[in-house]
Design a protein that fits this description.
This protein is α+β, with helices and mostly antiparallel strands. The chain contains 17 helices and six strands.
Length: about 375
């Protein structure tokens, strides 16, 4: 049914994610997916411009019907496939009004929160940034998120954006909330938004929903033990080590990947704080350097075989490399990265945007 649909989308784009969520919710997953690179200006290619004269993504075509704006795409899909998949617009006029209100209103999260602060840092030269402007952007961001925190507080725990059911409002709002979480935003001051984020499933297998990455990995290993790579060894001592390293790898994310990266690029803080974060990062990586040194060349994180510990650890190491972190001071970690990056599973799951663009140099200075 979706074989005559084509969607041009870019990695990291909230509006593109909206369209993709909607297609999945309506049971139209067999559409033609065309990933484009923003860095390579592929959204300005003739192929995309034929569909979207603004050269923006998402760009969507269904047969001879062209729809480009993300909300318009979602409304088109809901109206065209009403009886299929998730019902995204309720029939009740009052409920429908609320869903549409929140769907349109969610653009404020993107403009005032997700983009308000982030775009200021990524699009403003360091020498042109001012503390006053940063504080203004942060204030606007917090005020906007407080509005949504209030909406969810009124609806009660377990609610979606516009009620008890997942609707168009969630399709439109969730990608921007997820972007903030992805970039390390502290959600602890917004407990209802944090619960909402956890409510939307990240992984679903039949009727089973699993959200946390480690939980997903353990579920897959336990459910498909006899299939593919054995990620948890049978030997109790080996299994304990693998589980220890798998859980422990979160420290790389918290202290290295995010610990100072987010603070360095998004928050203006005193130099002393930055140095403290750098120190914590280096100390954490030195621990992992030591683990690998003890195991010897050619080893994975918890032994001679690739296992759950590597599935949990490698993405955070790869993120540091992607951002230009100098790995020369950690020779064993550098060798480990080279060992794992060419595994078929890693190649297959490599972030699409990383494939098409060179590594960044954000962290080269440290």
């Amino acid at each position: 049914m979706a074989s005559d649909m084509i969607l041009y989308w870019g990695a990291g784009s909230g509006p593109c994610w909206r369209a993709m969520i909607c297609l999945e919710e309506k049971g139209l997953s067999d559409y033609t997916s065309k990933l484009i690179s923003f860095d390579n200006k592929e959204h300005k290619s003739d192929e995309v411009l034929k569909i979207n004269p603004r050269g923006q993504a998402p760009a969507f075509k269904h047969g001879n019907v062209i729809v480009n704006e993300s909300l318009a795409i979602c409304l088109y899909l809901e109206n065209t496939f009403k009886a299929q998949g998730t019902k995204l617009l309720p029939d009740d006029p009052a409920q429908q009004g609320l869903v549409l209100q929140r769907a349109v209103e969610s653009q404020n999260i993107r403009e005032k929160a997700a983009f308000g602060v982030l775009s200021y840092f990524f699009r403003t030269k360091p020498e042109d940034r001012t503390e006053a402007m940063l504080e203004e952007k942060k204030k606007t961001c917090h005020e906007e998120l407080q509005v949504w925190e209030g909406y969810l507080a009124k609806l009660g725990d377990g609610s979606h954006i516009a009620g008890k059911n997942f609707t168009l409002a969630d399709v439109c709002a969730f990608p921007f909330i997820a972007t903030l979480v992805r970039m390390g935003f502290n959600m602890s001051r917004y407990p209802h938004l944090a619960k909402y984020y956890d409510l939307v499933p990240a992984f679903k297998h039949g009727n089973v929903i699993v959200n946390e990455s480690l939980a997903i990995c353990l579920y897959l290993e336990n459910t498909f033990k006899s299939q593919g790579t054995k990620l948890l060894p049978d030997d109790p001592a080996q299994q304990a080590l693998v589980l220890q390293r798998a859980v422990e790898s979160q420290n790389i994310r918290d202290k290295a990947s995010y610990g100072f990266f987010w603070r360095f690029f998004v928050l203006t803080k005193p130099e002393a704080m930055f140095e403290e974060k750098k120190k914590a990062c280096f100390e954490e990586l030195q621990i992992w350097e030591g683990y690998l040194a003890k195991l010897g060349d050619g080893s994975y994180i918890a032994g001679k075989n690739f296992n759950l510990a590597d599935a949990c650890t490698f993405p955070f190491i790869a993120t540091l490399v992607r951002m230009g972190f100098n790995m020369s001071r950690y020779p064993h970690l550098a060798k480990y990265y080279d060992l794992v990056k060419d595994r078929p599973s890693v190649k297959a799951s490599w972030p699409p945007l990383w494939k098409d663009t060179p590594n960044k140099d954000f962290l080269k200075v440290i």
